[in-house]
What we know:
single chain; Rossmann fold; 7-stranded mixed β-sheet; 5-stranded parallel β-sheet; about 15% strand; disordered N terminus
Amino acid sequence: MNNKSLVWLVIAVIVIAGAWYMWKGQGNMADETGPIRIGASLPLSGEVASFGEFTKAGIDLALKEINDAGGINGRTLEVVYEDDRCSEAGSTVFNKLVNIDKVHAIIGPVCSPAAGPGIPIAEKAKIPTIIWASAPGLADLGDYIFRTYPSDAFQGKVGAEYVYNELGKRNVAVLYTKNDWGQGITDVFSKRFTELGGTIVAVESASQETTDLRTQLTKLRDANPDLIYLPLFTASATGAVKQAKDLGITVPFFGGDVLQVTEFLSVPESEGVMYTFGKLNEPDAFKARVLEVTGKESNVFSGLGYDSLKIMAKIMSEVGTDPEAIKKELEKLQYTEGVSLPLISFDEAGDLATAEVEVRIIRGGKSELLK
């Protein structure tokens, strides 16, 4: 190589290096001054779409309040909504939010079937995530995963104790959904119920999509239970209560929190069905504010969505968008400004440090408190 060629090579290297430096600097500047993105994994279609709709209404209210107040240190906050359909599509949703949308944090999923395959992706990418999917162990899946709703490890225990102690039932049959949520809450319920002295006389299961449960219900009926424990998802639970009537099953049904959904409460055959649900607040002033701002009705899931976004925004306003800094703030969180709970703080696993579960019953298409 002659001297002239060497000179041109050096010039080319300098130009390329300078261009790269300027591009990198602009990229960093954009990352520090552009919009902050938070992903939201919600069931916006499918059998529990109302869960997602109610949650979105709460998030939308929080988003407007945050941006109307100047955003996060002057930066606009954006929420990227994705439909996980309360299913294994959670993995697709999280891949998109993490790898394409490049979100700084994630809230949701509501549903355990979406959370199970989705949140390991966030954990691997070190994206702080607040969920309220309730299957036992989900919060244990990583250091960046936190949950603002009671775990089924608690909910299943409360259900078993209520059935045994308050309802006086000793022989229970179980029909559950074969997914993270159904398996987890069933295991906890069955363990605690037998510890108390009860007997599980029969166990049947069904896939989340199954709506014809006559075979399973016939087996449960023939086992002569005092009560049927029914941790099924909406479509399956709807089929079960309708078909149970045709099969002459008259014993009570007792399920889990998925039955809180509008799609099940409105079914006439759901009358008298009992279920457990995390104890959450729903202030009238908040409900009115959601309706005024978003034009949407709300329920307790609206408060969970609202609080989760507010928590992330508050932390980011204090420490920025560095994931490690956000995680550390979540670990020591003592949030008392929420609408869903008087205090939101987490234990070492990322679960709520304190939580309560209540028992509800469906009467006249509405949910009423039993305990």
